[in-house]
Write a structure and sequence with these properties.
- This protein is an all-alpha fold.
- The chain has helices at about 5-35, 40-45, 65-80.
- The protein has a single domain, classed as Acyl-CoA dehydrogenase/oxidase, N-terminal domain (Butyryl-Coa Dehydrogenase, subunit A, domain 1, Orthogonal Bundle).
- It has three helices and no strands.
- The longest helix has 28 residues, at about 5-35.
């Protein structure tokens, strides 16, 4: 069995790392200070396709496997832990 990451996995993780560092992390202090729902962070996740990652592609999701999803969540949590809860809509998946 080959345990190396695929090129696609590497690309996805690097993309999340870059977006988290450049766009999400700078908003975290403001979000924490205001104590409001972080709509700006949520919008960034939506715009970059980081919501519904494990949902099948035929239903508009990302179709990611759990390993890739976990790596995405780990990178995002480095910048904004609470944002990891929006990566997969757990209320929809049981309906599939």
């Amino acid at each position: 069995m080959d345990y190396r990451l695929t090129e696609e996995q590497k690309l996805i993780v690097e993309s999340v790392r870059r977006i988290t560092k450049e766009k999400i992390s700078p908003l975290v202090e403001e979000v924490d200070r205001k104590g409001e729902f972080p709509w700006k962070v949520h919008k960034i996740l939506l715009e970059n396709g980081f919501v519904g990652l494990c949902l099948p592609r035929e239903y508009g999701g990302g179709g990611l496997d759990l390993l890739t999803f976990s790596m995405v969540a780990e990178e995002l949590a480095k910048g904004c832990y609470s944002a990891t809860f929006w990566l997969n809509d757990l209320t929809i998946e049981p309906l599939l």
